[in-house]
């Protein structure tokens, strides 16, 4: 991974689209963006959080249950087009990469950009061409084959979840904490040496594993 790039760690909360014509292009609309800017020392230097008013549906009850977001909370919020412009301004002009937990957020953003800004929009390459899936890097470093949720991943790293789960900013902050922990070679070596984790359907013994430069190698592979 290149140290001269800003690291933007983000998370979206999103709502299903009900309009059938729009749904043929995108399944969801983003209703909350949470992001943190991480410095070269892997500490958070800035935060961004905004709600977005959806165009094609009211907030589904299951989304309110999961996230606590209601239509009333979004009534005075900006549109996708307005907030994505503000988000770009917050990122700034320096070189950057985006990190998220799994590829779901990227897929949702890609389809919403196409739906609302057009497939030729400059925002498509600006955001979607600089994306790294931190979940994949975590899996390779820790030796897991199956996907693991963010809170469970924090648990394997012996890190407590900070804030409320399924809040976009809290999820971004905790994703950044995973990234910071993965950079700590001594800590990861210790965790893998001491643990025997039941996952992937069988007991995964991690004794004696040495990370070396694996973390940097995985970023290089996935970040190109």
Radius of gyration: 18 Å
Helix share, percent: 40-55%
Low-confidence stretches: 198-220
Strand order, sheet with most strands: 3-2-1-4-5
Helix/strand/pairing class, anyone?
Answer: alpha/beta
Describe it for me?
The model is unreliable at 198-220 (pLDDT under 50). The protein is built from eleven helices and seven strands. With 224 residues, the protein is an alpha/beta fold. Helices cover 44% and strands 21% of the residues. The strands form two sheets. Strands 3-2-1-4-5 form a five-stranded mixed beta sheet. The protein has a two-stranded antiparallel sheet with strand order 6-7.
Short description:
This protein has helices at 20-23, 61-67, 71-74, 80-91, 104-117, 122-128, 134-142, 150-156, 168-182, 185-194, 214-222; strands spanning 6-16, 28-38, 44-51, 96-100, 131-133, 196-199, 202-205.
List strands and helices in order, with pairings.
Blueprint: E1 6-16, H1 20-23, E2 28-38, E3 44-51, H2 61-67, H3 71-74, H4 80-91, E4 96-100, H5 104-117, H6 122-128, E5 131-133, H7 134-142, H8 150-156, H9 168-182, H10 185-194, E6 196-199, E7 202-205, H11 214-222
Parallel strand pairs: 1-4, 4-5
Antiparallel strand pairs: 1-2, 2-3, 6-7
Using brief descriptors, characterize the structure shown:
about 220 residues, alpha/beta, 5-stranded mixed β-sheet, two-stranded antiparallel ribbon, 11 helices, 7 strands, about 20% strand, globular
């Amino acid at each position: 991974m290149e140290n001269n790039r800003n690291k933007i760690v983000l998370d979206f909360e999103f709502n299903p689209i009900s309009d059938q014509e729009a749904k043929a292009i995108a399944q969801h609309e983003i209703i909350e963006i949470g992001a943190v800017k991480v410095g070269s020392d892997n500490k958070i230097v800035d935060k961004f959080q905004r709600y977005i008013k959806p165009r094609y549906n009211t907030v589904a009850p299951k989304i309110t249950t999961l996230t606590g977001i209601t239509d009333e909370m979004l009534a005075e919020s900006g549109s996708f087009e307005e907030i994505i412009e503000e988000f770009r301004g917050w990122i700034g002009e320096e070189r950057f990469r985006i990190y998220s937990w799994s590829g779901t957020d990227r897929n949702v953003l890609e389809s919403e950009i196409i739906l609302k800004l057009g497939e030729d929009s400059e925002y498509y390459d600006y955001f979607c061409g600089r994306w790294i899936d931190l979940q994949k890097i975590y899996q390779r470093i820790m030796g897991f084959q199956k996907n693991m949720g963010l809170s469970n991943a924090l648990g394997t790293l012996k890190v407590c979840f900070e804030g409320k789960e399924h809040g976009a900013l809290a999820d971004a902050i905790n994703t950044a904490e995973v990234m910071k922990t993965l950079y700590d070679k001594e800590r990861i070596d210790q965790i893998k040496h001491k643990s025997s984790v039941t996952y992937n359907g069988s007991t995964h013994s991690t004794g004696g594993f040495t990370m070396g430069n694996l973390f940097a190698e995985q970023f290089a592979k996935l970040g190109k």
